[in-house]
């Protein structure tokens, strides 16, 4: 051993001595572990959900989107075997595919995909496992074989209709792949759903068929990125709030152990040995907290995942497994984030302990003397961060940027961190000012001066409370505003009292019959089509655009919301009616930088078509860009297939049920073919509520964590506080008054925090609706401020502070006078 | 055993440099006990901190058993304190989260030479037998100071440095602690350098020096 190097025995004794502090103060250890646990659990839970969803997307993408182009009939009807054979005879390298849903005997729904392994392009995920002759023989000859997602293997094996099964982890959940003949038998069809072809192959197709490029399809991963990013942001907020607790606990433990550190140094423990022992202590606590947190995170994710999967299915039509599938790096990542967070929170403690002069080590007063310098530094750093947030906000509002979402989150982070850094200087300033003005009220003056003394310990939980309150207000305003706008928009868009979706063969008859009914005021026809986008020179861009046909009836013109037009509302509708104008949704306008008056080049079956953007309309909840034409022109130019018929009833004859019954009786329309407006609105509202349920749950949890931070800080310093309160008690202030003073101190500090949280929450709401939402989803929401939510923010702050004071106050109430006397004598 | 040569220490203050020690020379023989007296702020504690290697002089040297402490690195100074010195403070500086028994053996364990029999003997001699599992806050002031002395002696140091060891005690408790300290010093054949402002405390020791305006003078105890 080198001279002067401490032996392992010194390290061990030092470590045990340091840790003995937590044996005597288990509350502080619990506070540390609680902070780590909460931070790690919420973060890990969110990451577990994201990892599972991404695994499902990756499997879906491997299977289809990234690899094969599709060929379908222009009218979206199934393809016949004859069409396929004629293409093959003409030398076109297409392969048939059958898709459909099959309900198993236990009620599980499976997506059955039938393929022809002999013609399927070799690089596709579907073809991968039939590469050798033996497996190909098993596949195409009876009793055949099928591959199934492992999640559904057990349920499927119990179903006698299915061929022998192999579990295939590369398949998306709920998917079964088998030979095309088996699939047709299982689904009871003789037709083909579509044909597939390798993207590099060129095809000569008859005009009734259309090819859709794989690259033009947005993958589920791309579509849902914003959703997962929002979840990650909430998880990150919870992680930061949890780390605030950790930071507060470590600071408290350091302050209370300064004497011990000095003694150990004086007894011959080298400085570096002390730092190593403290780092080891952090590591041990970190590992324990991380394991607890990750395990709890997985449990939390298990509870939330079915709801998330349902939301993603409703919003983006993506299949996400409702059970967790966690890769190895998830566990390592959770451990790394927790330990990284702990060391970033503990770095300051190690740094200060390493730099402190041995002779000043025990002087707690030195820390307090630094408070003012620290407050000045915090205010300076806060000002810089707020400046950065303002600059980013201005830039994002004025200059669109491809990195908008990342910059938007950077702006939110700078705003929140900058404001929370300003909180302690503002509180200290207000306390100082009030304290000078209340000289004639000694008890109040003492309470304010005492609160200033507590500020170094209270500042972190107060900052956590500020973040949680402003997030609550900001996200609450955003969701509340979105709800108002969305419901209003639904009312404007869902004009018809009833929607009928008849089969194509009956479409004309149903429309004619409805038009002949006395109670029908108007029939709003809707159609769908897709068209390839062209550039200004008429060249293909490789992108397709969804087209939606509407009936520009007077009732539609009055209600359909428009955000922007080139030459006014009426002119826009005239252009649409005339067929040379199109409306585009906000998403398309934002992503492609289109404005009213700009040209929109498309390829129709008859050749290139140029339309003018007549107006931009809001289209909340739609992840894709879309254009609206009049239904008649869409049919004429783009061979659009019949969609739905919106039935507007005359005022006073609102017998929707009667008309539904007549349609069912006359045309045999049932199930989803006839729905009333109320049902559509209910479904849309349910999807909306479910989408934000998780955001709001995480938000409430973050607020609970901030409350816990405050409570644990108060409990951890309760002993020291009693020693400070004892002189006041000895001077004649009763315990009841002392409890009142403590409650008053915390409630005023929390109210001050809530007052700052109001502008911060409004700023956050603006950032969410005007920057993050635009970048993530492509639409901008109006900013709504709800006075009731502002009042709720203040009430919540007071409630959290009162709740956190309750337990320490109760303990103070139970302290016998004899003990207070001893504490007074010991000062 | 301990030799301080031309020891000088100056602290900067808003009013200009404050010369706390100004060329102090001092020698202490093995087994000798020396009292260092002086008014508050005379530099007594600074001298003790320099002798213990807790601080370094601006000029001069501290030589302990032929080794210059001032020239040692921080880890080597820590090792010296751990292995060969014992420190007793006016404020006791016991570890509040360790029991009486663990506090007593703390330095011995750090030095890697815990002697259970010696520790038990010390506990009995210090009047702390039966209090092994108590914590410092559950002891009286006199008991805490006796425990601090026990902690320093449990590691069998060659030199005990004590800073006002009875400053926080009443007269009776102080006498009791001092008698015990002297007896244990003799038993363990350890040298003692004690800082005090009390002539009554300094009288029984072998020698007494007076520190005034940063300089030493022989004093009549």
From TrEMBL, chain A:
- Keyword line: Cell membrane, Membrane, Transmembrane, Transmembrane helix
Superkingdom as given in the UniProt entry: Bacteria
Could you list the residue ranges that cross the membrane? 231-254, 274-305, 328-354, 375-394, 406-434, 464-486, 697-717, 764-783, 790-810
- Membrane topology, from the record: Multi-pass membrane protein
Entry's localization field: Cell membrane
Domain ABC3 transporter permease C-terminal: from-to ranges: 234-357, 700-817
One short Pfam name that applies is: FtsX
PANTHER family documented for this protein: BLL1001 PROTEIN, MEMBRANE COMPONENT OF PREDICTED ABC SUPERFAMILY METABOLITE UPTAKE TRANSPORTER
Please state what the protein is called. FtsX-like permease family protein
What organism is this sequence from? Modicisalibacter luteus
Automatic annotation (TrEMBL), chain B:
Can you tell which superkingdom this protein's organism belongs to? Bacteria
The record lists the lineage as:
Bacteria, Pseudomonadati, Pseudomonadota, Gammaproteobacteria, Oceanospirillales
UniProt GO MF annotations = ATP binding
Kindly indicate whether the keyword Cell cycle belongs to this entry: no
Which key words tag this protein in UniProt?
ATP-binding, Nucleotide-binding, Transport
Q: Which InterPro entries match?
A: AAA+_ATPase (IPR003593), ABC_transporter-like_ATP-bd (IPR003439), ABC_transporter-like_CS (IPR017871), ABC_transpr_LolD-like (IPR015854), MacB-like_ATP-bd (IPR017911), P-loop_NTPase (IPR027417)
A Pfam family hit:
ABC_tran
Q: Where is the ABC transporter domain?
A: 2-221
What is the name of this protein?
ABC transporter ATP-binding protein
Coiled-coil regions listed = none
């Amino acid at each position: 051993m080198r001279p002067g190097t401490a032996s392992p025995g010194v390290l061990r004794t030092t470590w045990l001595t340091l840790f003995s502090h937590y044996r005597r103060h288990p509350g502080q250890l619990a506070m540390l572990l609680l902070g780590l646990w909460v931070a790690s659990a919420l973060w890990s839970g969110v990451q577990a959900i994201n990892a599972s969803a991404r695994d499902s997307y990756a499997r879906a993408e491997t299977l289809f989107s990234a690899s094969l182009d599709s060929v379908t009939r222009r009218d979206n009807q199934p393809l016949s075997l004859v069409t396929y054979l004629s293409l093959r005879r003409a030398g076109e390298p297409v392969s048939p595919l059958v898709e459909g849903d099959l309900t198993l005997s236990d009620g599980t729904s499976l997506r059955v995909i039938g393929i022809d392994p002999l013609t399927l392009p070799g690089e596709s995920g579907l073809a991968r496992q039939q590469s050798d002759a033996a497996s190909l023989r098993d596949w195409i000859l009876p009793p055949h074989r099928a591959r199934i997602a492992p999640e559904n293997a057990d349920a499927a094996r119990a179903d006698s209709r299915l061929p022998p099964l192999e579990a295939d982890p590369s398949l998306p959940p709920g998917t079964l792949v088998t030979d095309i003949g088996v699939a047709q038998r299982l689904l009871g069809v003789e037709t083909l759903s579509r044909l597939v072809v390798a993207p590099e192959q060129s095809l000569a197709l008859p005009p009734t068929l259309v090819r859709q490029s794989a690259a033009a399809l947005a993958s589920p991963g791309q579509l849902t990125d914003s959703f997962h990013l929002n979840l990650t942001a909430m998880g990150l907020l919870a992680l930061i709030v949890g780390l605030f607790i950790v930071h507060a606990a470590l600071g408290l433990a350091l302050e209370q152990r300064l004497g011990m550190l000095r003694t150990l140094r004086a007894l011959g423990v080298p400085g570096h040995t002390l730092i190593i022992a403290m780092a080891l202590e952090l590591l041990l606590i970190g590992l324990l907290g991380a394991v607890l947190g990750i395990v709890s995170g997985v449990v939390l994710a298990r509870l939330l995942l079915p709801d998330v999967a349902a939301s993603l299915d409703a919003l983006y039509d993506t299949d996400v497994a409702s059970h967790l599938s966690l890769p190895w790096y998830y566990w390592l990542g959770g451990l790394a984030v927790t330990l990284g967070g702990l060391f970033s929170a503990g770095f300051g403690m190690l740094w200060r302990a390493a730099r402190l002069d041995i002779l000043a080590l025990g002087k707690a007063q030195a820390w307090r003397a630094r408070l003012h310098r620290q407050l000045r530094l915090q205010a300076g750093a806060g000002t810089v961060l707020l400046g950065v947030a303002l600059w980013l906000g201005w830039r994002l509002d004025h200059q669109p940027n491809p990195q908008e979402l990342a910059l938007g989150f950077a702006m939110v982070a700078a705003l929140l961190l900058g404001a929370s850094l300003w909180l302690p200087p503002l509180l200290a300033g207000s306390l100082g000012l009030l304290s000078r003005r209340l000289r004639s009220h000694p008890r109040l003056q003492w309470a304010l001066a005492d609160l200033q003394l507590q500020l170094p310990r209270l500042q972190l939980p107060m900052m956590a409370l500020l973040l949680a309150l402003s997030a609550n207000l900001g996200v609450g305003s955003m969701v509340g505003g979105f709800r108002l706008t969305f419901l209003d928009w639904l009312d404007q868009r869902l004009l018809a009292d009833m929607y009928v979706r008849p089969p194509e063969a009956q479409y004309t008859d149903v429309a004619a019959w409805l038009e002949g009914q006395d109670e029908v005021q108007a029939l709003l026809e809707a159609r769908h089509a897709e068209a390839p986008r062209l550039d200004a020179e008429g060249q293909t861009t490789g992108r397709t655009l969804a087209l939606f046909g509407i009936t520009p009836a007077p009732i539609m013109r009055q209600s359909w919301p428009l955000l922007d037009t080139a030459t006014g509302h009426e002119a826009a509708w005239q252009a649409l009616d005339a067929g040379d104008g199109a409306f585009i949704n906000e998403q398309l306008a934002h992503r492609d930088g289109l404005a009213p008056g700009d040209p929109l080049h498309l390829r129709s079956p008859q050749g290139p078509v140029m339309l003018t953007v007549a107006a931009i309309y809001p289209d909340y909840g739609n992840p894709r860009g879309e254009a609206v034409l009049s239904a008649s022109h869409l049919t004429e130019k783009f061979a659009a297939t019949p969609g739905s018929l919106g039935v507007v009833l005359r005022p006073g004859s609102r017998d929707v049920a009667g008309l539904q019954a007549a349609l069912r009786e006359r045309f045999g329309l049932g199930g989803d073919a006839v729905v009333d407006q109320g049902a559509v609105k209910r479904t849309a509202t349910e999807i909306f509520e479910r989408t934000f349920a998780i955001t709001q749950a995480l938000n409430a949890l973050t607020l609970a964590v901030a409350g816990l931070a405050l409570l644990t800080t108060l409990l951890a310093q309760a002993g020291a506080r009693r020693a400070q309160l004892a002189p006041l008690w000895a001077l004649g202030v009763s315990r009841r008054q002392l409890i009142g003073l403590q409650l008053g101190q915390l409630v005023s500090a929390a109210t001050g925090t809530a007052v700052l949280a109001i502008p911060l929450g409004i700023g956050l709401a603006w950032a969410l609706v005007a920057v993050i939402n635009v970048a993530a989803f492509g639409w901008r929401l109006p900013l709504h401020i709800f006075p009731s939510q502002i009042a709720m923010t203040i009430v919540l702050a007071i409630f959290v502070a009162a709740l956190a004071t309750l337990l320490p106050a109760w303990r103070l109430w139970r302290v016998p006078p004899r003990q207070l006397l001893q504490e007074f004598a010991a000062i | 055993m301990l030799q301080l040569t031309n020891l000088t220490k100056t602290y900067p203050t808003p009013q200009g440099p404050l010369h706390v020690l100004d060329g102090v020379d001092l020698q202490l023989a093995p087994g000798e006990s020396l009292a260092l007296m002086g008014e508050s702020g005379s530099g007594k504690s600074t001298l003790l901190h320099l002798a213990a290697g807790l601080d370094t002089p601006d000029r001069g040297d501290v030589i302990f058993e032929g080794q210059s402490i001032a020239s040692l690195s921080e880890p080597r100074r820590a090792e010296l304190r751990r292995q060969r010195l014992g420190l007793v403070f006016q404020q006791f500086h016991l570890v509040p989260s360790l029991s009486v028994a663990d506090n007593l053996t703390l330095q011995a364990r750090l030095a890697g030479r815990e002697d259970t029999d010696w520790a038990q003997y010390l506990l009995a001699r210090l009047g702390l037998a039966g209090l092994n599992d108590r914590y410092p806050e559950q002891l009286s002031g006199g008991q805490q100071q006796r425990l601090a002395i026990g902690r320093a002696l449990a590691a069998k140091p060659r030199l005990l440095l004590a800073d006002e060891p009875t400053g926080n005690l009443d007269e009776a408790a102080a006498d009791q602690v001092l008698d015990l300290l002297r007896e244990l010093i003799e038993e363990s054949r350890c040298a003692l350098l004690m800082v005090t402002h009390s002539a009554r405390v300094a009288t029984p020791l072998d020698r007494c020096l007076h520190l005034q305006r940063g300089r030493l003078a022989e004093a009549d105890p």
